[in-house]
Design brief:
The protein is an alpha/beta fold and 310 residues long. It contains eight helices and 14 strands.
Length: 310
């Protein structure tokens, strides 16, 4: 019985800390121009220190438009069970938000990148963190933040920490917007995971961006999973495909940044708006157990290699 219980407790953190993260709430234009005129905001980072001694590797986790949901919890437990600490950032509660799926304009598209970089400043000062072994992983809107946090232009604008990420793992991110200089990224590896049936953030957009990055010399790979819909790693939705009525999915839009940090709808030449006809208000979400297992297997192998774990 004792041995069984010991094995069962493997994924329990030895310590949990909640850290206040001073950040900013920014419009898209403020973020893209590096303006510090945003509204001050305090968000939270849940730091779960895995079982182990000394300085441990850390995965920074960034949630999507629905906040910190069931899928995120399973990843936290999984990484903690591998002896890897997790720092999950809640970018919503401190801003008075629970979800932005039905009103994406409530928060700038890349605002979560600022939260991530501010959280990195906290981690680099913590005695339980190996600053040479920190990976960023994000999901959906958080996956968008995870992939574009590698863009050198945004790093120059918003990253103050000396520590850096050893790798980036975006999961079903929105890659449909073309930003100025968005193929000039850090040399660290980017590993994108996406469902082929996703009509919320499309695989096609992720493929196009990954190909542009490859041509620019980036270390990027994309893993695709047949029949997997958006949010496929949510275990509460395994075997289900649900219409997320009212959610604003922009994967059918061609959004581009122009000088001055303005995002335009390329089809109209006018500033992009979530009321534009290209916005899909009936996207789907759905859990897919096989795709989740495949993603976890690939991510685990990559993380262990990156962190030098047996």
């Amino acid at each position: 019985m004792g041995e069984t219980l010991t094995a069962a407790f493997k994924d329990i953190a030895q310590r949990i800390e909640l850290h206040s993260i001073p950040s900013l709430t920014l419009t898209d234009q403020q973020f893209l121009t590096g303006s510090g005129d945003g509204k001050p905001a305090t968000v939270c980072g849940e730091f779960r220190i895995a079982q182990g001694a000394g300085r441990l590797p850390v995965i920074v986790l960034m949630h999507g438009s629905g906040g910190m949901g069931p899928g995120l919890q399973t990843w936290i437990s999984h990484f903690n069970g591998l002896g890897i600490s997790t720092f999950a950032i809640d970018g919503f509660t401190g801003r008075g938000l629970t979800s932005v799926g039905n009103d994406q304009a409530l928060l700038g598209r890349l605002n979560l990148i600022v939260d991530i970089f501010r959280g990195l400043e906290i981690l680099e000062k913590h005695p339980a963190v190996d600053t040479s072994r920190i990976i960023l992983m994000g999901f959906s809107r958080g996956g968008q933040a995870a992939v574009y946090a590698a863009v050198e232009r945004f790093r120059t604008m918003w990253k103050k920490a000396t520590a850096d990420f050893a790798a980036y793992i975006p999961v079903y991110p929105d890659c449909g917007t073309t930003y100025l200089d968005d193929t000039k990224v850090t040399a660290q590896p980017i590993r994108i995971h996406h469902g082929a049936a996703d009509d919320y953030n499309s695989l096609a957009n992720a493929k196009r961006y990954a190909e542009r990055l490859r041509k620019a010399g980036a270390d990027v790979e994309l893993f695709e999973y047949a029949d997997a819909h958006h949010g496929y790693d949510n275990p509460l939705n395994f075997g289900k495909v649900i219409e997320a009525t009212g959610s604003q999915a922009v994967c059918g839009c061609d959004i581009r940044e122009v000088e001055g940090g303005t995002l335009i709808n390329a089809a109209t030449g006018k500033p992009f708006n979530y009321t534009d006809p290209c916005v899909n208000l009936k996207p789907h979400v759905g859990g897919h157990e096989q795709a989740t297992i495949a993603t976890r297997t690939a991510v685990t192998a990559f993380v262990k290699t990156t962190f030098g774990l047996a």
